[in-house]
Amino acid sequence: MSEMRGQGAGAGRDQGQGMAARQGQRAAGASGAGQGQQGLNPLARNMPTQGMQSGPGADRPRDRQRTFGRLTAYLRPHRALIAVTAALVVASTGLALLGPYLVGLAIDRYIVRGDLPGLWRISLILLGTYTLAWLAEYGQSYTIVAVTQHVLRALRQDLFGRLQALSLRYFDRHTTGELMSRLTNDIDAVNRVLSQSVVQLVASGLTLAGMVVVVLLLNVWLALGTIAVMPIMLYFTLHMGRGTRRGFREVQANLGRLNALTEETIIGVKVVQAFRREPTLTAEFERTNHAVRDTTIRAQLRMTLLRPMLMVFSNLDIVVIAGLGGWLALRGMVSVGVIATFVLYARRFFQPLLTLADLYNSIQSALAGAERVFDLLDERPQVTDRPGAVALDSIRGHVIFDRVDFAYVPGVPVLKDVSLEALPGQVVALVGPTGAGKTTVVNLLSRFYDVDGGAIRIDGHDIRDVTQDSLRRQLGIVLQETFLFADTVMENIRYGRLDATDEECIAAARLANADQFIQRLPEGYQTHLAERASTLSQGQRQLLAIARAILADPRILILDEATSSVDTRTEVHIQAALLNLMRGRTSFVIAHRLSTIRQADQLLVISDGRIVERGTHQSLLAEGGFYSRLYKSQFARAEVLTQVAAPAMAHRGSASARAFSPSKQDV
């Protein structure tokens, strides 16, 4: 679909009002920023905000086991690499456990007896053991990084695909910055736990279990003294970490709000500066930033408090081993080498516990991020293809609205019992005051939303019975607010039809009268545009959007104030190009400047969600109704403005003349 595809979810002119309503006190600064962010959503300002969630499923009960299980599902395709990683973890853990045992053996068999050759042999064995352990750890790090990146690629792909599939209602309720946070901050949290924490978790568990077995085999009494404090340490680990997951989830939510505010402010920086809202937005950013700081400090305090507590228990355990081991050694019940082995194991014994304590908190942070990711993946588009939906191939463009009702918010109707018929090739103009429901009509025709009542048919097909892709291939939309990508001019035009040749793109640009200004660009059609094409004027961006629609060659054309952003001279050329484009195509034209739609086959006057008048320009003028008053008021207003402006300009001109003319005193 031509300009709709070019816009993606580009905003109509009224979306800025919806953003202003959502942002409350930032209305003046946010209205300009909001344009271009959502779809054609003219009445977002009527949507209540108090019920909006900070994220999908905000009130949904959390289930960490389910979240962990879903993460595990992403690991299953990489079972072979995971098996290699597991083998390397077991090998590195076993070799690391062998080291302290060899040290004790060296003391009892070679150092005490003064066997220097034997000491050299066991030292070489010890060196080989630790070298192999290091190689195994390196191998496991390499394989787990490979697995993690495969999983993250799949997660990001699924997340982006879900965002592309969601209906516009979802984007009406969530800011772009918040959604970007899901793709960045939350995915990064999952990355940390998969690339580091999982292997460390398994290795620490194996190390802990292995050391318990080894110390029990060496000496039961010393083993009991060593592991006596384990239940206390596990209790503190679980107790202190109980609120950590909740805290990190709050951190992630606050980061999403901070990202949303930052992105909105950057996008709308011109409006912010024009309305001098820098102090207001700086104060709001400071409040949100403080919230991020405070929640992060609370979560981190819980995490950092646990490690010093466990270190106290570790040192206490060494005291127990030294005292108990010395008492047993004096009675000949244990050797010095065994005591040394226990001391080394005691240090390593608490390292897995410390690691597990740290990992517990890291995992809570990752699960909080994963929950937010899966919340988004669980969202389902409200507009979907019905089972058995057919493709809408070749159409004539016969459009019927049959008693259509629609509301963005239940109980707040936007369209009420709207019926209309557009014959193939007809030009239908929609006029009326702002917020009357004109853009909603084309929203429903494009099936960005589904009707609440009635039906919309194209060539006899209910649009709910055809696939969305085939429907939108037949539509071309040119919006007032044009979205262009940070790519070349040629590729932005080609977005209307990706298989178009360069010659076809240039021909479309010429038909849209855009070729002349494109040729003046530094590299012509190969000029790279800045983000949102900020280096082009609004009129130039609009010309490229029209060229994109011409290239798509749609059967049904929708023009939403398509010429409102260009000067009068350029508008004459564009109108000529659009007349060529509309010939033989069913066209819906939304316009506030009524002079641009006088030749329409039908004029539909919409007020308060209803069609209150319909006819041609001349017939509606003759009726003397709403349209006639609206038309006359525009020309009367233009005449008044001209009369007011003329003396002012004359005065300005005479003042300027006096300013540059020498007075008598000057002479």
What is the fold's blueprint, element by element?
Elements: H1 2-7, H2 15-23, H3 27-34, H4 64-75, H5 79-111, H6 116-165, H7 168-173, H8 176-218, H9 220-227, H10 230-241, H11 244-267, H12 269-274, H13 278-330, H14 336-378, E1 399-406, E2 415-422, E3 427-431, H15 438-445, E4 453-458, E5 461-462, H16 468-473, E6 475-478, H17 489-494, H18 502-511, H19 515-519, H20 538-552, E7 556-560, H21 568-582, E8 586-590, E9 602-607, E10 610-615, H22 617-623, H23 626-659
Parallel strand pairs: 3-8, 3-9, 6-7, 7-8
Antiparallel strand pairs: 1-2, 1-4, 4-5, 9-10
Helix pairs in contact: 2-3, 3-11, 4-14, 5-6, 5-8, 5-14, 6-8, 8-9, 8-11, 8-14, 9-13, 10-13, 10-14, 11-13, 11-14, 13-14, 18-20, 20-21, 22-23
Specify the structural class: alpha/beta
Overall pLDDT score: 76
Q: Which fold name is given in CATH as the topology of the largest domain?
A: ABC transporter transmembrane region fold
Q: From the alpha-carbon coordinates, what is the Rg to the nearest angstrom?
A: 35 Å
Q: Classify the helix fraction into a percent range.
A: 55-70%
Shape, per Cα inertia axes: elongated
- The fraction of residues assigned to DSSP E strands is 5-15%
- CATH-scheme architecture of the largest domain: Up-down Bundle
Poorly predicted runs of 5 or more residues: 1-62, 638-667
Beta-strand segment tally: 10
CATH superfamily of the largest domain: ABC transporter type 1, transmembrane domain
Helix tally equals 23
